[in-house]
Amino acid sequence: MAFDLTAASAVLKEDYLGPVREQLNNDNYVIQKLVEKKQEATGKEFYVPLHIGRNNGVGYRSEGAALPSAGNQKYKQSTANVKYLYGQIEITGPTIKAMRNDKGAFIRALDSEMKGLLRDLKDQRARALFGDGTGRLATFAVNTTVNTLTVNQIKYFQVGMLIDIVNNSNVVTVTGRQITAIDTTNKTITINGAALTTAATDYAVVTGDLNVEAMGLGGIMNPALTLQAINPATDTYWKPSVMANGGTNRALSQQLMRQALDLSELAGGKIDLMTGSYGVRASYEALLQQLVRYTNPMELEGGYKALEYDGRPLIVDRYHYSNTMYFLDMDEIDLYQLSDFEWMEDDKGSAIHKVPGFDKYEGTMFAYETVVTYRRNAHTALTDLTEPAGYSV
Protein backbone atom coordinates (compact mmCIF):
# COMPACT_ATOMS: atom_id res chain seq x y z
CA MET A 1 0.00 0.00 0.00
CA ALA A 2 1.35 3.43 -0.90
CA PHE A 3 2.54 5.73 1.86
CA ASP A 4 -0.03 8.41 1.12
CA LEU A 5 -0.87 11.75 2.74
CA THR A 6 -3.19 10.14 5.25
CA ALA A 7 -0.40 7.91 6.52
CA ALA A 8 2.08 10.78 6.44
CA SER A 9 -0.23 12.97 8.50
CA ALA A 10 -0.55 10.27 11.15
CA VAL A 11 3.21 9.95 11.41
CA LEU A 12 3.57 13.72 11.56
CA LYS A 13 1.18 14.02 14.48
CA GLU A 14 1.90 10.88 16.45
CA ASP A 15 5.60 10.20 15.94
CA TYR A 16 6.85 13.77 15.92
CA LEU A 17 4.72 15.86 18.24
CA GLY A 18 5.83 14.17 21.45
CA PRO A 19 9.58 14.23 20.74
CA VAL A 20 9.40 17.79 19.40
CA ARG A 21 7.60 19.05 22.50
CA GLU A 22 10.03 17.25 24.80
CA GLN A 23 13.08 18.67 23.06
CA LEU A 24 11.62 22.16 22.97
CA ASN A 25 10.82 22.05 26.67
CA ASN A 26 14.36 20.96 27.46
CA ASP A 27 16.04 23.49 25.19
CA ASN A 28 17.61 25.20 28.20
CA TYR A 29 17.31 25.03 31.96
CA VAL A 30 15.23 28.20 32.33
CA ILE A 31 12.64 26.99 29.80
CA GLN A 32 12.62 23.57 31.44
CA LYS A 33 11.85 25.12 34.82
CA LEU A 34 9.10 27.28 33.33
CA VAL A 35 7.50 24.36 31.52
CA GLU A 36 7.58 22.17 34.63
CA LYS A 37 5.12 24.46 36.36
CA LYS A 38 3.35 26.04 33.38
CA GLN A 39 -0.14 27.42 33.88
CA GLU A 40 -3.01 26.86 31.47
CA ALA A 41 -4.49 30.08 30.17
CA THR A 42 -8.20 30.08 29.40
CA GLY A 43 -8.42 32.96 26.94
CA LYS A 44 -6.36 35.26 24.76
CA GLU A 45 -6.42 37.79 27.60
CA PHE A 46 -6.21 36.41 31.10
CA TYR A 47 -5.92 37.83 34.62
CA VAL A 48 -2.95 37.37 36.91
CA PRO A 49 -3.77 38.17 40.57
CA LEU A 50 -1.08 40.06 42.47
CA HIS A 51 -0.70 40.33 46.24
CA ILE A 52 0.45 43.93 46.77
CA GLY A 53 -0.20 44.75 50.44
CA ARG A 54 -0.55 43.34 53.93
CA ASN A 55 -3.32 43.66 56.51
CA ASN A 56 -2.45 46.86 58.38
CA GLY A 57 -4.99 46.21 61.10
CA VAL A 58 -2.30 44.96 63.49
CA GLY A 59 -0.35 46.56 66.31
CA TYR A 60 0.56 46.41 69.98
CA ARG A 61 -1.75 48.12 72.51
CA SER A 62 -1.69 48.84 76.19
CA GLU A 63 -3.95 46.88 78.50
CA GLY A 64 -7.60 47.77 77.99
CA ALA A 65 -6.93 49.98 74.95
CA ALA A 66 -9.01 49.84 71.79
CA LEU A 67 -8.03 47.11 69.37
CA PRO A 68 -6.52 47.98 65.97
CA SER A 69 -9.03 48.79 63.25
CA ALA A 70 -9.74 45.86 60.98
CA GLY A 71 -7.66 45.70 57.85
CA ASN A 72 -7.33 43.36 54.90
CA GLN A 73 -4.90 41.90 52.41
CA LYS A 74 -4.52 44.01 49.28
CA TYR A 75 -4.67 42.62 45.77
CA LYS A 76 -4.51 43.92 42.22
CA GLN A 77 -5.41 42.23 38.97
CA SER A 78 -2.89 42.35 36.17
CA THR A 79 -3.65 41.18 32.65
CA ALA A 80 -1.56 39.45 30.02
CA ASN A 81 -1.99 38.06 26.53
CA VAL A 82 -0.52 34.92 25.06
CA LYS A 83 1.53 35.38 21.91
CA TYR A 84 1.47 33.17 18.86
CA LEU A 85 4.54 31.27 17.63
CA TYR A 86 4.38 29.31 14.35
CA GLY A 87 6.63 27.07 12.31
CA GLN A 88 5.92 25.44 8.93
CA ILE A 89 7.23 22.62 6.79
CA GLU A 90 6.49 22.26 3.10
CA ILE A 91 6.66 19.22 0.80
CA THR A 92 6.06 19.38 -2.96
CA GLY A 93 3.70 17.09 -4.83
CA PRO A 94 6.52 15.58 -6.95
CA THR A 95 8.44 14.71 -3.78
CA ILE A 96 5.45 12.90 -2.36
CA LYS A 97 4.83 11.12 -5.68
CA ALA A 98 8.44 10.03 -6.07
CA MET A 99 8.38 8.45 -2.61
CA ARG A 100 4.89 6.96 -2.71
CA ASN A 101 6.18 3.36 -2.58
CA ASP A 102 9.06 3.98 -0.20
CA LYS A 103 7.93 4.79 3.30
CA GLY A 104 11.52 4.98 4.51
CA ALA A 105 12.44 7.63 1.95
CA PHE A 106 9.41 9.72 2.80
CA ILE A 107 10.14 9.48 6.52
CA ARG A 108 13.73 10.57 5.90
CA ALA A 109 12.54 13.61 3.95
CA LEU A 110 9.99 14.39 6.61
CA ASP A 111 12.57 13.88 9.36
CA SER A 112 14.92 16.34 7.68
CA GLU A 113 12.22 18.99 7.52
CA MET A 114 11.16 18.32 11.10
CA LYS A 115 14.68 18.65 12.46
CA GLY A 116 15.01 21.99 10.72
CA LEU A 117 11.65 23.15 12.06
CA LEU A 118 12.56 21.98 15.56
CA ARG A 119 15.84 23.86 15.45
CA ASP A 120 14.16 27.06 14.31
CA LEU A 121 11.29 26.83 16.81
CA LYS A 122 13.77 26.29 19.65
CA ASP A 123 15.82 29.24 18.48
CA GLN A 124 12.87 31.61 18.14
CA ARG A 125 11.33 30.59 21.46
CA ALA A 126 14.60 30.82 23.39
CA ARG A 127 15.34 34.29 22.05
CA ALA A 128 11.82 35.53 22.81
CA LEU A 129 11.77 34.17 26.37
CA PHE A 130 14.93 36.15 27.15
CA GLY A 131 13.57 39.26 25.41
CA ASP A 132 11.07 42.00 26.18
CA GLY A 133 8.22 41.30 23.74
CA THR A 134 9.22 43.99 21.25
CA GLY A 135 11.29 41.71 19.03
CA ARG A 136 14.26 44.11 19.05
CA LEU A 137 17.41 42.38 17.79
CA ALA A 138 19.88 45.25 17.72
CA THR A 139 20.17 49.00 17.28
CA PHE A 140 21.79 50.45 14.18
CA ALA A 141 24.61 52.93 14.04
CA VAL A 142 24.39 55.81 11.58
CA ASN A 143 24.71 54.09 8.19
CA THR A 144 24.52 56.12 4.98
CA THR A 145 23.41 54.54 1.68
CA VAL A 146 25.02 51.15 2.21
CA ASN A 147 24.11 47.47 2.29
CA THR A 148 26.59 46.63 5.03
CA LEU A 149 25.13 48.05 8.24
CA THR A 150 26.85 48.51 11.59
CA VAL A 151 24.86 47.41 14.64
CA ASN A 152 25.49 47.44 18.38
CA GLN A 153 25.31 43.63 18.65
CA ILE A 154 25.13 40.77 16.18
CA LYS A 155 24.43 37.69 18.30
CA TYR A 156 20.70 37.71 17.50
CA PHE A 157 21.22 37.74 13.71
CA GLN A 158 21.60 34.77 11.35
CA VAL A 159 22.49 34.55 7.68
CA GLY A 160 19.25 34.11 5.74
CA MET A 161 17.12 35.84 8.37
CA LEU A 162 14.51 38.32 7.12
CA ILE A 163 14.43 41.57 9.08
CA ASP A 164 12.41 44.77 9.28
CA ILE A 165 13.91 48.14 10.20
CA VAL A 166 11.97 50.20 12.73
CA ASN A 167 12.41 53.88 13.54
CA ASN A 168 12.36 55.69 16.89
CA SER A 169 8.56 56.05 16.64
CA ASN A 170 8.24 52.26 16.43
CA VAL A 171 7.14 52.41 12.81
CA VAL A 172 8.46 49.86 10.30
CA THR A 173 10.25 51.78 7.55
CA VAL A 174 11.88 48.91 5.65
CA THR A 175 10.56 45.35 5.53
CA GLY A 176 11.63 41.89 4.41
CA ARG A 177 15.35 42.42 3.85
CA GLN A 178 17.42 39.24 3.97
CA ILE A 179 20.76 39.04 5.75
CA THR A 180 23.40 37.71 3.36
CA ALA A 181 26.52 38.05 5.53
CA ILE A 182 27.56 38.73 9.12
CA ASP A 183 30.89 40.13 10.38
CA THR A 184 31.22 39.40 14.09
CA THR A 185 34.50 41.29 14.46
CA ASN A 186 33.19 44.58 13.06
CA LYS A 187 29.58 44.00 14.17
CA THR A 188 28.06 44.46 10.73
CA ILE A 189 25.32 42.73 8.79
CA THR A 190 24.94 42.78 5.01
CA ILE A 191 21.43 42.83 3.54
CA ASN A 192 20.04 42.37 0.06
CA GLY A 193 18.15 44.94 -1.98
CA ALA A 194 18.76 48.65 -2.37
CA ALA A 195 21.30 50.47 -0.19
CA LEU A 196 19.90 51.98 3.02
CA THR A 197 20.43 54.84 5.40
CA THR A 198 19.75 54.26 9.09
CA ALA A 199 19.69 56.53 12.13
CA ALA A 200 21.27 55.75 15.48
CA THR A 201 17.77 55.24 16.91
CA ASP A 202 16.65 52.70 14.29
CA TYR A 203 16.51 49.04 15.26
CA ALA A 204 15.93 45.65 13.68
CA VAL A 205 13.31 42.97 14.30
CA VAL A 206 12.52 39.67 12.62
CA THR A 207 10.12 40.43 9.76
CA GLY A 208 6.59 40.68 11.15
CA ASP A 209 7.64 40.30 14.81
CA LEU A 210 7.40 43.91 16.00
CA ASN A 211 5.59 43.94 19.38
CA VAL A 212 3.98 40.52 18.88
CA GLU A 213 6.56 38.27 20.55
CA ALA A 214 6.01 36.53 23.88
CA MET A 215 7.09 38.45 26.96
CA GLY A 216 10.39 37.26 28.39
CA LEU A 217 12.83 37.89 31.21
CA GLY A 218 14.19 41.00 29.51
CA GLY A 219 10.80 42.72 29.86
CA ILE A 220 10.23 41.57 33.43
CA MET A 221 13.64 42.95 34.40
CA ASN A 222 13.12 46.34 32.69
CA PRO A 223 11.93 48.66 35.50
CA ALA A 224 10.53 51.26 33.07
CA LEU A 225 8.38 48.87 31.07
CA THR A 226 4.63 48.67 31.61
CA LEU A 227 4.05 44.98 32.21
CA GLN A 228 0.80 43.04 32.49
CA ALA A 229 -1.09 46.35 32.16
CA ILE A 230 0.58 47.84 35.26
CA ASN A 231 2.75 50.95 34.93
CA PRO A 232 5.68 50.92 37.39
CA ALA A 233 5.85 54.73 37.22
CA THR A 234 2.56 54.92 39.15
CA ASP A 235 2.58 51.53 40.90
CA THR A 236 6.12 51.78 42.21
CA TYR A 237 6.11 48.34 43.81
CA TRP A 238 5.87 46.90 40.29
CA LYS A 239 9.53 46.98 39.31
CA PRO A 240 12.59 44.82 39.88
CA SER A 241 15.66 46.09 41.68
CA VAL A 242 18.29 47.16 39.17
CA MET A 243 21.95 47.64 40.06
CA ALA A 244 23.33 49.66 37.16
CA ASN A 245 26.47 51.74 36.74
CA GLY A 246 25.26 54.53 34.49
CA GLY A 247 26.08 52.62 31.32
CA THR A 248 29.75 52.17 32.23
CA ASN A 249 30.81 48.56 32.58
CA ARG A 250 32.54 47.49 35.80
CA ALA A 251 34.13 44.30 37.04
CA LEU A 252 31.91 41.64 38.57
CA SER A 253 32.53 41.13 42.27
CA GLN A 254 31.19 39.00 45.08
CA GLN A 255 30.10 42.19 46.83
CA LEU A 256 27.87 43.13 43.87
CA MET A 257 26.42 39.64 43.76
CA ARG A 258 25.76 39.66 47.49
CA GLN A 259 24.04 43.02 47.26
CA ALA A 260 21.85 41.78 44.40
CA LEU A 261 20.75 38.78 46.43
CA ASP A 262 20.10 40.97 49.46
CA LEU A 263 17.99 43.47 47.50
CA SER A 264 15.69 40.68 46.36
CA GLU A 265 15.45 39.15 49.81
CA LEU A 266 14.76 42.52 51.44
CA ALA A 267 11.78 42.80 49.07
CA GLY A 268 10.61 39.34 50.09
CA GLY A 269 12.06 37.36 47.21
CA LYS A 270 13.72 33.97 47.54
CA ILE A 271 16.36 33.80 44.84
CA ASP A 272 16.89 30.26 43.54
CA LEU A 273 18.37 30.91 40.10
CA MET A 274 20.92 33.28 38.58
CA THR A 275 21.17 33.74 34.82
CA GLY A 276 23.71 35.47 32.64
CA SER A 277 25.47 35.65 29.31
CA TYR A 278 28.48 33.53 28.46
CA GLY A 279 30.70 36.56 28.99
CA VAL A 280 29.31 37.11 32.49
CA ARG A 281 29.99 33.47 33.36
CA ALA A 282 33.55 33.86 32.10
CA SER A 283 33.93 36.92 34.32
CA TYR A 284 32.64 34.95 37.30
CA GLU A 285 35.07 32.09 36.60
CA ALA A 286 37.91 34.63 36.44
CA LEU A 287 36.74 36.08 39.77
CA LEU A 288 36.86 32.63 41.39
CA GLN A 289 40.41 32.16 40.09
CA GLN A 290 41.43 35.53 41.54
CA LEU A 291 40.05 34.43 44.89
CA VAL A 292 41.92 31.12 44.56
CA ARG A 293 38.62 29.25 44.62
CA TYR A 294 37.54 26.33 42.54
CA THR A 295 34.00 25.04 42.66
CA ASN A 296 32.87 21.81 41.05
CA PRO A 297 29.93 22.50 38.71
CA MET A 298 26.53 21.99 40.27
CA GLU A 299 24.65 19.03 38.79
CA LEU A 300 21.11 20.10 37.92
CA GLU A 301 18.14 18.04 36.79
CA GLY A 302 18.03 17.34 33.10
CA GLY A 303 21.81 16.92 32.85
CA TYR A 304 22.60 20.63 33.15
CA LYS A 305 25.71 21.87 34.93
CA ALA A 306 26.19 25.29 36.48
CA LEU A 307 28.59 27.32 38.54
CA GLU A 308 27.24 28.28 41.95
CA TYR A 309 27.24 31.24 44.26
CA ASP A 310 25.89 30.91 47.78
CA GLY A 311 24.22 27.65 46.84
CA ARG A 312 22.44 29.11 43.79
CA PRO A 313 23.19 27.96 40.23
CA LEU A 314 24.36 30.38 37.54
CA ILE A 315 22.83 29.36 34.20
CA VAL A 316 23.99 30.83 30.89
CA ASP A 317 22.18 31.23 27.59
CA ARG A 318 23.36 32.52 24.22
CA TYR A 319 20.37 34.86 24.04
CA HIS A 320 20.73 36.36 27.48
CA TYR A 321 21.35 40.12 27.48
CA SER A 322 25.08 40.82 27.47
CA ASN A 323 26.86 42.42 30.45
CA THR A 324 23.94 41.43 32.65
CA MET A 325 23.10 38.95 35.41
CA TYR A 326 19.60 38.23 36.68
CA PHE A 327 18.74 37.03 40.19
CA LEU A 328 15.38 35.30 39.93
CA ASP A 329 12.76 33.94 42.29
CA MET A 330 11.37 31.25 40.02
CA ASP A 331 8.34 30.71 42.27
CA GLU A 332 7.23 34.18 41.12
CA ILE A 333 7.55 33.50 37.38
CA ASP A 334 5.34 31.26 35.26
CA LEU A 335 4.82 30.28 31.66
CA TYR A 336 1.17 30.73 30.68
CA GLN A 337 0.01 28.62 27.74
CA LEU A 338 -3.22 28.67 25.82
CA SER A 339 -1.73 25.85 23.74
CA ASP A 340 1.44 23.81 24.03
CA PHE A 341 3.10 22.89 20.73
CA GLU A 342 0.52 21.30 18.42
CA TRP A 343 -0.01 20.65 14.73
CA MET A 344 -2.59 22.80 12.99
CA GLU A 345 -5.22 20.43 11.62
CA ASP A 346 -7.78 20.85 8.86
CA ASP A 347 -11.45 19.94 9.21
CA LYS A 348 -10.58 16.29 8.54
CA GLY A 349 -8.06 16.13 11.35
CA SER A 350 -5.07 16.06 9.01
CA ALA A 351 -1.79 17.82 9.87
CA ILE A 352 -0.76 18.09 6.19
CA HIS A 353 -2.76 20.46 4.01
CA LYS A 354 -2.84 21.14 0.29
CA VAL A 355 -1.64 24.66 -0.51
CA PRO A 356 -4.39 26.21 -2.69
CA GLY A 357 -3.18 26.90 -6.21
CA PHE A 358 0.14 25.05 -5.82
CA ASP A 359 1.37 21.49 -6.18
CA LYS A 360 2.66 21.32 -2.62
CA TYR A 361 1.58 20.51 0.90
CA GLU A 362 2.37 22.10 4.22
CA GLY A 363 2.24 21.38 7.92
CA THR A 364 2.15 24.05 10.63
CA MET A 365 3.16 23.72 14.26
CA PHE A 366 2.15 26.39 16.74
CA ALA A 367 2.22 27.39 20.41
CA TYR A 368 0.35 30.14 22.24
CA GLU A 369 2.23 31.26 25.34
CA THR A 370 3.89 34.06 27.30
CA VAL A 371 5.82 34.58 30.54
CA VAL A 372 4.29 36.35 33.53
CA THR A 373 5.49 37.32 36.99
CA TYR A 374 3.54 37.67 40.23
CA ARG A 375 6.08 39.75 42.17
CA ARG A 376 8.29 41.84 39.97
CA ASN A 377 10.22 43.28 42.91
CA ALA A 378 11.30 39.79 43.96
CA HIS A 379 13.94 39.84 41.20
CA THR A 380 17.16 41.84 40.77
CA ALA A 381 19.11 42.76 37.64
CA LEU A 382 22.85 43.39 37.92
CA THR A 383 23.84 45.30 34.79
CA ASP A 384 26.83 47.11 33.28
CA LEU A 385 29.22 44.22 33.90
CA THR A 386 32.50 43.84 32.05
CA GLU A 387 32.85 40.79 29.82
CA PRO A 388 36.19 39.41 28.56
CA ALA A 389 37.29 40.41 25.07
CA GLY A 390 35.49 38.49 22.36
CA TYR A 391 32.29 37.89 24.31
CA SER A 392 30.31 41.09 23.81
CA VAL A 393 28.99 40.45 20.33
TrEMBL record:
This is Rhodanese domain-containing protein. Residues 252-316 form the Rhodanese domain. SUPFAM superfamilies: Major capsid protein gp5 (SSF56563). Transmembrane segments: none annotated.
